[in-house]
Design a protein that fits this description.
Chain A: It is a peripheral membrane protein. Chain A: GO terms for molecular function: ATP binding; ATP hydrolysis activity. Chain A: It is found in: Cell inner membrane. Chain A: Belongs to the ABC transporter superfamily. Chain A: Keywords: ATP-binding, Cell membrane, Membrane, Nucleotide-binding, Transport. The complex is a heterodimer. Chain A is built from ten helices and eleven strands. Chain A is of the alpha/beta class. In chain A, the strands form two sheets. Chain A has a six-stranded mixed sheet with strand order 7-8-9-3-10-11, sandwiched between helices. In chain A, strands 1, 2, 4, 5 and 6 form a five-stranded antiparallel sheet that branches. In chain A, helix 5 packs across helix 7. Chain B is an alpha/beta fold. Chain B has a single domain (5-197, 227-242), classed as P-loop containing nucleotide triphosphate hydrolases (Rossmann fold, 3-Layer(aba) Sandwich), CATH 3.40.50.300. Chain B is built from nine helices and ten strands. The longest helix of chain B has 18 residues, at 170-187. Chain B starts with a strand and ends in a 7-residue tail after the last helix. Classes of the chains: A alpha/beta, B alpha/beta.
Chain lengths: 277, 249
């Protein structure tokens, strides 16, 4: 399997009044054309890892890495303009909540067309045709109608499909999905994941799925990285999640209520200071 | 025995949109009752209607056998308190924990406020060191503990819980759920809990109602749900969805 992305010793820190806050502290992994899950709780650095790869870290932050290589391109060395050209075209990102991440004053169709024409010199008619095709690919039944709707006129699930369409229209090689279904209802969640799964497989993309939901990630991805306090504490194939060894992973799996399991009180996570070392 | 909470054909309408369509239910004293459904199912509206926060256009609500009027009085809030979903939005950002806990005591004319505040904080597992902090100095889980302390400080008999843990991390959720169970046992409280998470509701509640489009879909016990003894397809689809994603081969 060819390697798409190589990350070695990635560190992201933010200078604050009280000193340097290290959000990501030495994360290393590599990714091929596969589905990789990054799981952790708030503040674990999972989203900052995704954002650093996408090039969306806040400007005042300090990013260092021994290697941050995407298809032979050193992401730390490329200019802002090159980075901008890559973003959306070669690396794309799906954000959590379509209510906040779509442009509220632009129709869905125009937003998809805009995303496409930012990267490819296509004419208006051609762009429209490709956008409609993409809307159909995310299983929107009536693409012509949805094309002309504003984000507030569609449901959360529909909005998230529109965002997937927008992110995939330029044909990226790597897709980063940051909590793509956390704002959706459970039944809609599965539909959206199904669509994402099919498109990633059909188009041979690499996927990084960032989420707090260990169980969801393990049911969706091939491989899972568990992060705690800015570091990777465990990496394992998703199918062998039940054999996780790190007490944090085990604790995280254990503390969720399960239907049919009568456990009162629930086991709680006993955070050991040495996990964060 | 009179029900702790009795709702008969409750109807809530926002202008022409009917959010809750004639829903009835009975909750026994000391029972823990769950409301499950997706966004727009009316589960939170039902809870808010009981608390007097949604426009009721029809039906009856009785608390401990006493019918409620159009406006909730002070005595009602002594008996019924609510904990909201988002601990970031439900605590006053410019008041200390002490001030937050003092307000309900003040309104209801309690005098031994000092003792009550110390005890309330202690009960939710926050030491007295938290007493003079502002909410932005607390984590999400600590804030929700403060919200629970504020609800309990008036010694109500019924607690309305609107997604009390869905804004929290899984490990913090476990701690807050354990706390809620512990105070329920200690004070013999009645819970009405809203959640979109079937696992959380079956863990916490004895019985539950599945709702969709403002209507009751099914009323069943948690034991039946766990044993997959469900009658409605919608409940079944929720159960399947809660098991996580399955890759179709």
């Amino acid at each position: 399997m060819s390697t798409l992305l190589q990350v070695e010793d990635l560190r992201v820190s933010f200078p604050t009044r009280t000193g340097l806050v290290q959000a990501v502290r030495g994360v290393s992994f590599s990714l091929g054309k596969e589905r990789l899950g990054i799981v952790g709780e708030s503040g674990s650095g999972k989203s900052q890892t995704g954002r650093a790869i996408m090039g969306l870290t806040a400007e005042h932050a300090q990013i260092t890495a021994k290697k941050l290589d995407f298809n032979g391109i050193d992401l730390l060395k490329v200019s802002t303009a090159e980075r901008r050209a890559m973003r959306g075209k070669r690396i794309a990102m799906i954000l959590q909540d379509p209510k906040y991440s779509l442009n509220p004053v632009m129709t869905i169709g125009r937003q998809i067309v805009e995303a496409l024409r930012a990267h490819e010199p296509v004419g208006g008619a051609e762009a429209r045709r490709r956008a409609l095709e993409m809307l159909a690919a995310v299983q929107i039944r009536d693409p012509e109608r949805v094309f002309n709707l504003y984000p507030h006129e569609v449901s959360g699930g529909m909005g998230q499909r529109a965002m997937i369409a927008m992110m995939l229209v330029a044909g990226p090689e790597l897709l980063i999905a940051d909590e793509p279904t956390s704002a959706l209802d459970v039944t809609v969640q599965l539909e959206v994941l199904g669509i994402l799964n099919r498109l990633v497989a059909e188009r041979g993309m690499g996927l990084i799925f960032v989420s707090h939901d260990l169980r969801l990630v393990s049911s969706f991805c091939d491989r899972v990285i568990v992060m705690y306090a800015g570091r990777i504490v465990e990496e394992l194939p998703a199918s062998r999640l039940t054999e996780a060894e790190h007490p944090y992973t085990r604790g995280l799996l254990n503390c969720m209520p399960k239907i049919g399991a009568d456990r009162h009180p629930l086991p709680v996570l006993d955070r050991k200071p040495e996990w964060a070392l | 025995m009179t029900s702790a909470l009795s709702i008969d054909k409750l109807r809530v309408a926002f202008d022409e949109f009917v959010a809750l369509k004639d829903v009835s239910l009975e909750v026994k004293p000391g029972e823990s009752f769950g409301l499950v459904g997706e966004s727009g199912s009316g589960k939170s509206t039902l809870l808010r209607a009981v608390a007097g926060l949604a426009p009721v256009t029809g039906g009856k609500v009785e608390v401990n056998g006493k019918p409620l009027g159009a406006k909730r009085d002070k005595a009602f809030y002594r008996q019924v308190q609510m904990v909201f979903q988002d601990p970031y939005g439900s605590l006053h950002p410019r008041q200390t924990v002490d001030r937050l806990l003092l307000e309900p005591l003040d309104i209801h004319g309690f005098d031994d406020t000092e003792r009550r505040i110390v005890r309330a904080l202690d009960e939710v597992g926050l030491g007295s060191s938290f007493r003079f902090r502002y909410s932005h100095q607390l984590s999400g889980g600590q804030r929700q503990r403060v919200a629970i302390a504020r609800a309990l400080i008036l010694e109500p008999s019924i607690l309305l819980l609107d997604e009390p843990t869905s804004a929290l991390d899984a490990s913090v959720q476990a701690e807050v759920l354990n706390l809620l169970e512990q105070v329920r046992a200690a004070r013999k409280l009645t819970f009405v809990m809203v959640s979109h998470d079937l696992a959380v509701v079956t863990h916490m509640c004895d019985r539950l109602m599945v709702m969709q489009h403002g209507r009751e879909v099914e009323l069943l016990s948690s034991a039946d749900l766990a044993a997959r003894k469900v009658n409605q397809d919608y409940t079944r689809s929720l159960l399947t969805a809660s098991e996580g994603y399955r890759r179709s081969a």
